[in-house]
Amino acid sequence: MGFSPKLSTSAKRTIRLQAAPVPGESCTGEKIAVVGATGYIGKSVVKESIRRGYPTAAVMRDVNKSKDEPKFQGATLQNFDVTDRESCLDGKLFPKGSVDVVVCCLASRTGTKSDSYAIDYQASLNCAEAAKAAGARRFILLSAYCVKSAERKDPYALQFQYAKMELEQKLKDLTSDGGKFDFVSVRPTAFFKSVSGQLEVVDGGGPFVYFDLGNDRCARCNPISEPDLAAALIDQVADDTNKNGIWNIGGPDVGGLSMAEQGEMIHSILEKEGDPKLLGVPIGIFDIIINGLQWVGDTFSNQWFDDAAELGRIGKYYAVEDMLTTDPSEIYGRTTLEQHYTYIAENGQEYDPYTTVFGSAEGKKKFQEKVSK
Questions:
Q1: pLDDT-based confidence at 365, cuts 50/70/90?
Q2: Cβ–Cβ contacts within 10 Å for residue 166, how many?
Q3: What is the mean pLDDT of the segment spanning 108-119?
Q4: Alpha-carbon distance 308 to 313, whole Å?
Q5: Burial, 136: exposed, middle or buried (Cβ in 10 Å; 0-12, 13-18, 19+)?
């Protein structure tokens, strides 16, 4: 039997990266930390990292609430408040040498200005700076395709888009000193769960609601499933293609699907009789609601109405803007939206008030009971 020396993490990475990275498979063997691990995408990223064979730490605010999460099996759970900047930067979050790559899946719950800058910007920056100080070599950020609106300075750009854009600029600054620390920002178009909330509504006999932009047009998108997005994020550990850059990414539905087409698809998958019930709502209704809320907020200096107006702008944005990638290098994954709808029609889906549009907890519970019989 020959002598087999124990290899360091860096040596393992060097050997493994001699071959071209394989999407969905490559593993450098480095130590991975996932912050925002309890979120919708974060859970899947932890699961994918473990599946690949990475030593994985899942960072969360309250371990006791998530210790029984099946997707965390095999991970080291770390209790930490990443909004505590001082603790992040004094080495408590990532002790020196404890991590090689950090995957940041933090996202504000609401998208309001205060929440966005506290989480999407500041808490994420805390993690990036802590990662660099600990000697990590890469910071992988889960960003958003729609940040392009902040870059273009669109008049309708949203607060969370500006927060993420400013964070990406800070990451460029952090990696501009010629050291080993770098970053990748992954910008997905949309998540499956954010567009699939109406399945239970249609199943119950209600119409599929979409926003009519005029001339028989409505927004199109090619969303990506959470397992596919998790795989894409973990791919960035071994792949240097997007080093110190941005990767826009959407799912495998080439050309995307309009909201009306999704309504027709759900009708067919649920095997409903007759023609699909589609309800096109004039997009102008958003302006009435937003302007009214903002007037009250401005007139009475009321933060609640300011935040409500921003939530209205978020709703309008996704009703108007195409969340669609067309470049082959920006299309990733195996699961199509039709496959997703077929699966949840047979198995139900979890309710998430922060990512599900039009759905309700009660509606999903009733549908889950129906498909479980």
A1: low
A2: 18
A3: 96
A4: 9
A5: buried
